[in-house]
Fold these 3 entries.
Entry 1:
Amino acid sequence: MNKIAIAAAVAAVLASYAGAASAQTTPAPAAPAAPSLGAVLAATPGLSITGYVYGTYDYFDTSSTLLRAYDTKPNGFNANGAAATVAYLPSSGFGGQVTVIGGNDAKALNGSNSFYLNNAFVQYATGGLTLMGGKFGSLAGFEVTNPMGNATVSRSILFWDMEPGSLTGVRASYAVSPALTLIGGVNNGWGYTGSQPNGLGKTIELGLSGSPNSMFSYMADYYRGQSPWFGSSANNGVLQLLDLVGTFNVNSALTLGANVDLLSKDNSTLANGTIGTAKANGLALYATYALTSEWGVAARGEYVDDKDGLVSYGNSTTGTANKLKELTLAVNYTPMKNVKLSAEVRQDRSDTAIFTKKDGSPTTKQSSLELMAVYSF
């Protein structure tokens, strides 16, 4: 074998070894990566994930926070909590929504638990008809649990002390026109903390809502059913609420609102000492004004004629007539659309001394200063 042939044979052997080594070291094709949350949302039109995180600083000149919703500290910072909502609510077909709230707000809504399922429902929509089943918010009230949806830091007396919260049951609504939607439903009852005791009848829900024009919108709703709420917990009489809400957009800067509540409870102790239908009537008026695209001011005034102590004394007792008044002034700063900073001053007044001073003595006034920061997504 000549030198040229030997060289060719050696080159062929080296080439075969090089090819084998290359085949051994070349990585296998990577497995496809799992889709990101953003990709899933983008691939499912109508599916959304939203929520908020917020905290407050509260200062009260009293030792408690009577009549308040989520203002739980007489003097201190409050990690009110966070909420997340997953929703798929198409205009036609099946959908659903789940909202979970965590933190101190959840404890206010659900006793000592740090998490609260605020709503979880399935929905079917076709044409003007929408059917819902599960847990969802009531129709009542001008204000909402989400702090981004209110112009004040605190919630009204009507919101927390006279109106139902989340309800569990079924609801049907039919949009006759933009000016009129008819609503009807059946649920387990008043949705404050805890649950409706077994053996009580269901609560009916009836409502009308609409927006006849761009300046005015309204909601009228009625609830009636057996409930242990208001008065002695042993009193499962019929509880009724007629709730009326109107919103008037005067112009692009000024919005006015009103909320009227007529509440009654059967088989209760009345102010005259007899047993009958106890009543409380409430009115809340609202005004918000946008100074600029970032700055705004708001005011709220309330009056509750608590004829038999349903609101003033809650589930402990009834039978003492009282009148409640409340005034709140607030300033809101929104440096970007998902951030809100707020400050408010508020004073509650009562005809009877239901509040307690820091020294332990009773008083008819309760004043507070609150600061709030909210981040939404």
Note: Confidence is low (pLDDT under 50) at residues 1-26.
Entry 2:
Amino acid sequence: MINLDIPRKFKPLVRQAHETAAEVLRPISRKYDQAEHERPVELDMLAAVIDVMNEGNSEVGGTGATGVRRDANDKSQGNRNGTNLSTALSVIEMCWGDVGMVLSMPRQGLGNAAIASVANDDQLKRFKGRWAAMAITEPGCGSDSAAIRTTARLDGDHYVLNGEKIYVTSGDRADLVVVWATLDKSLGRAAIKSFVVEKGTPGFELVRLEHKLGIRASDTAAFLLKDCRVPKENLLGDPAVNPEKSFAGVMQTFDNTRPLVAAMAVGLTRACLEEMAHILESCGMAVDYCKPAHRQPAAVSEFMRMQADYEAARLLTMQAAWMADNARPNSLEASLAKAKAGRTCVDVALKCVELAGSIGYTETALLEKWSRDAKILDIFEGTQQIQLLIIARRLLGKSSAELK
């Protein structure tokens, strides 16, 4: 059974992640928010340290997206606190510092999660130590990943990819991009596969970098693929098209990454609440947990409500990550965590700006920036609406065709 306390072996990791967020990320947070598209060079050394930590202990994750595999029938290890949980805990602390910086961390991209989740042993060796972005979204395909129109056609020893990808996080800075494409549009989601495309491959063109509302430290790219030839060994997972297995395994990535996006939202939510607590205290409105909410000032009552939502989001996130470590099907829990944490983060950030008044609306404090950063956490890795749809399908036992 899951233990809600931080596992003893992860406490040093959590402490180090918090110290890094406080001493490295927070001090340069505003700098790179204002200098959009400028690469945070301070993160290079930090990424190197994380690489060393990960090499030394496979049970301790870094700050970005990872994947862990375990045989669901293997009961010999009992309950396990592994990479998914440790990574979620470190992500919470790091995103308390700055979300955009965490997304800019070298070799910690969402594409790395796809490789870790479904790559074979040879691919794991070939792509080890390289930074991988993830390219799913297209101009006509956002929340409905099954509508992907980028095509992949087998030609000898290569797949030929054609299409357009947008909103690729770290697309400019990464070494590799995991591109989702379909082998046969008529077969729907079953024919969608993921391909590792190396930067510099002919036919793989960077079109532009996006200007964004928040997470400005992170680059977001758009790509055009025109007769881009990718070695067939770079297809992740099973190359066979099996109509009985939707997405043929690539959706395993989301079961690992959605809890991590939820963890990002939990970290940012906590940052907002801690700042709001300082503001309330400076105004002489300390929270008294011995009194019911309706007997306290309105601002304090709202603060207590936000704390309750935060705690619910945090617990759902820990549950989803723990289930992934223990090879328990967690698609429902991953979507619950992502939906709750994303919505809570946006609501809390905007409410804190409102309650803080002029303090929250100026660039003299980070609340203004956090309110902009928060919105993406309710959008990427599946929007709020998509998560609620997935949850409804799981609870009602409906397929995607039956409940749209």
Note: Residues 249-396 form a domain with the Butyryl-CoA Dehydrogenase, subunit A; domain 3 fold (CATH 1.20.140.10).
Entry 3:
Amino acid sequence: MSGNFLFQRIDNSQIVVWRIFFGILMLAEGWGSIATGWVKETFVDAEFTFSFIGFEWTHFLLGETMYYVYVVLGLLGLMIALGAFYKVSSFLFAVGWSLVYFMQKEHYNNHYYLIMLVAWFMVFIPANRYKSIDVLIWPKIRTNITFYWTRLIFILQLFIVYTFAALAKLYPGWLNGDFLMLRYKGLGHWVDKTIEWQPLTDFVYSREFAQIISWTGFWFDLLIVPLLLWKKTRIPAILAALVFHLINSFTLHIGIFPYFALAISIFFFPPETIQRLFFRKKTSYQPDSYNFQPSYSNRGLFSFVFVVYFLWQIYLPLRHWMIPGDVLWTEEGHRLSWRMMLRTKSGAAMFTVKDKNSGEIFPVNLYDEMTPLQASRIATHPDMIWQFAQRLKKKYAAEGKQVSVHANVQISINGSRYYQQIDPSVDLAMVKWKYFGHQEWLLESPVDFSSFSQSEAEKN
């Protein structure tokens, strides 16, 4: 039953247009990352990166090699847009993007994660069978049709992204405006200097403004997919999405994601609508004229994998409920969960290294050991703290010393007071990382961050 549903034949204009949009955006992302200095800051200047745990082996690529990696990623994006050697170019892009995604967490971004997932979708979607260089080289592959799953996979993925992004906002720091009051300070400063109208400046700085934007963001994330799916609300919804994403682009500076999200919304329109908008001369798919179909020898197995993938996508954002502690405090279950733009964290970390034999204590200056960006991130991410402790252990082991590593870390969330996060008596060099559980060396979180952040944010 599910196999028949997933393999219904539809016009393939959507996946063809998306292929072009996706490729152009990846070209811009790949080469733009070099032009803006992002690659230099993240991969070239760094002696190491805080990779996903288990991907430390990727450090051999660090340095100027990463310029070539991103040049190739941009070039592969162009090849995808043109539909040139599509199977190879989409596969190499998915592998390359996955590699650079898992290489670093200093710039962790849910949008990069979404790109990785979509890149792997593209490997299996026959998006090169119309308006592509591949069709010019191999005319026999040309077709006007695809299967319904190639559209459904994008709709379901976006539904998961937006729904869990909305649910993650249901905590006091978002709903009472703590986070956005801090985030929009720069916007208030811009209004003050540019427009020079005090009532507007005061409003942008106010908690009321932050709460309006907070609740608007929540309801947008919760309702945008259902509204796009319903024909009567689709046009107002797409206009609202346009305004929402452009505002985010200019105020939050979140890269290509607003344009990525707008482009992917083509899947909420009927395939025939996209065909009329972009390929007026193209003959729409007619059942009687069907000649070609992508080969799936085992539709049952494909349907099973399809369902399992989306069950996994539902599990990942929920897994933090199975781990003790507040995810805002521990960060356990935060990544891969669509917890986007939720909080501002700041912290201070001091590491102590002690020789177990001589008792000698070695000073640790973070700025001597890592880049300024890494030093600014480490205090608010327990997994980075643990990884750095392991790095210090190996560094001194290479000098013939057995050392203990302790960390004194305090963090603030959404402008709250600073709280001790890690048990300073624990030797982090000796503890093992629990991939799917709770780190016992993390102290319990405060009961309520917002009770402190409201008054302190307003003072500032």
Note: The CA atoms of residues 31 and 71 lie 6 Å apart.
